Structures are given as structure tokens and as C-alpha cells.
Amino acid sequence: MKAAVLYRAGGPENLRLEKREIPLPKQDQVLIKIKAFGLNRSEIMTRKGYSESVHFPRILGIECVGEVVEDPSGEFRKGQKVAAFMGGMGRDFDGSYAEFAVLPKSIISSFESDLPWEILGALPEMLQTVYGSLHSALKINKGETLLIRGGTSSIGLLAAELAKSEGLKVISTTRNIDKQNLLIENGADRVLIDDGNLSNQISKQNIKIDKILELVGTSTLKDSLASVVQGGIVCMTGMLSEQWSIKDFAPMDFIQAASYLTIYDSGKIRVDGQYFQEFIRKVEAKEIKPVIKKIFKLEEIAEAQSFMESNQSGGKIVVLV
Q1: Domain 2-123+290-320 belongs to what topology?
Q2: Cβ atoms of residues 267 and 87 within 8 Å
Q3: Is the pTM of this model over 0.70?
Q4: Overall fold of domain 125-263
């Protein structure tokens, strides 16, 4: 099989396409023929060496869709369509940057759909992260105002669509004034240009923000916490800034009294597979339209990562295998 293997941390050119033997599944594992996968920021951070627990060589990739080739337990039938994500995929064991992968059954969900693979490949981690952030972490309610910081990311765009469909008012942010229309077209009622001091803008314009989905990360977290109403919730889900931690974090200074800070991590909390199937049905019915910015081939994986790192995307990047 073809696989893109990372032997050492560094630039996208370090992803080497090579031939490997197709792995064999053991008990509680399934061999999957990978059809497509979405790119994720965490894979760039792993490639750069920011994930200290990841040992090389490693095949990256934290999600995929494909078809079952072999399941020793017989739970999944040959040819069955499945999605897989997280659970150590592409980090503790080899992931989706390949034509085949052996994955634990615990991270696999079956589904039915006639959607093309390039659309299906965009969905698993994106849906899990957005649904979990909005419902498990932020506990959104109809009529609330949600601010999405980092709105032009694939997670931000889908979060706006889902929140709007559930009756929330959505405010999305971008640093690029040219991307305002993209945000409005994908669910945002209003756009704020992120100058790093949103709390000041929000205070001056007397905007009431009930919940904030923080996708930029630690570099803007303090400002986001100052932007939410008393009793509101800020959920840090993304790290577009590529920073894991905050130096000299002082909770009494960062968090407003009687307000809440939480996180969402799809590697630790999994959304039930039935929601993924329901989400696919909504995409099929065109009730939800995930934004796919660009599609690459496996042979173009280095180019795909470079494109994501350039911050040009404004939607999900998908690789067809």
C-alpha cells in the first residue's frame, strides 16, 4: 500500500510517500480501506514536533472514512462503510495518511450514505467536534447569542450553521475583512473583525454574548473570557494559534466572577454514532452544507498541509485516497 510516513518533525516536505505492507488486524481491530480523510490542525502540530508523546516514524491522520476489508470478530461486514476518528489515531498508532489502516473497533462507527467520498471525508471529526462543543460543553439553548472566535475555520463555519439551525443568534469573527461574506453565507448573523481586543468592541457596542466557542486558542482566551456575560460559558476547542498553554495563568484574573471556562476534546468525549448518521442525512437533504475548500490526492499530502498552514482555506480540506 501507499502511505505518507513522517520520520522526523519538521516541514511538510518531511512527509515521505512510500510503499508498505498492508497491516493485519488483531482481535478488536478492523482493517479499513481508506477512501478519504479530512486534514486537521492537530496533524500540523504533530508534524512540527509539538506533540511530545508522538514517536516517529508515524503515519499521521486522526480521521477517515472507508470500507471494511477484514474484521476478525465479525462485527463489521466486508465492504461496510465506516468512519473513524481520534482515540490515539495518527498519534499512538498509525492513522489515515495511507491506503489502508488497522484501527481499534472502539473508534469506528458504521453508516449508510450515497454521498461522494470527498464529502463524507470532511465530516467525522468536524461533526464530532462541533456537536460536542455546542451541546456537551456550551450547552446551547434557543435564543442565546453565540460568538465563534475563529469563524472561518471548518469547525467555525459548521458551528455557525448548526447553531443557527437550532435557533441561536450567531456572531462570527475573522481577522480578514474580505471573509465577511463567507461567514454571513454560512450562518453568521453578524461579523466582528478580530483585532485581538474583542471585549472592548463588545462593551462599546453593548453586545450581550451568552456563549463563546474559542477556536483561536490560548492567545485570545483571556479576551474571550472578558467578552461573555456573567453566567456565560467559554469553551476552548481549537488551537489555531498553535499554543498549548498560558504562562502564569491566573484564574482570578482570567475568569469573570460566576462565569465558566471549559474545553471540548473529541479524543476524550465521543458523540454517539447515531448523531453522525443523522448528520449525514441532513447533509444529504441539503439542510446542512459543510464547506469544503479544496480536495487533494494522497500523493499531494505535503501540498495539502502547506495549503492548510497558509490559512487560505475557509473550509475543510479533504484528501481522496
Answers
A1: Quinone Oxidoreductase; Chain A, domain 1 (3.90.180)
A2: yes
A3: yes
A4: Quinone Oxidoreductase; Chain A, domain 1 (3.90.180)
Angle at which helices 273-284 and 124-131 cross, to 10°: 110
| DSSP-based three-state secondary structure for 150 | coil
Domain extents in the chain = 2-123+290-320, 125-263
Looking at residues 128-144, what average pLDDT do you find? 96
What does the pLDDT read at residue 98? 98
Q: Is a pLDDT exceeding 80 seen at residue 242? A: no
HSE (CB half, 13 Å, CA atoms) of 49?
Answer: 6
Q: What are the backbone dihedrals phi and psi of residue 195, each rounded to the nearest 5 degrees, phi first?
A: -100, 10
- Judge residue 21's burial from the number of C-beta atoms within 10 Å of its C-beta, 0-12 exposed, 13-18 middle, 19 or more buried: exposed
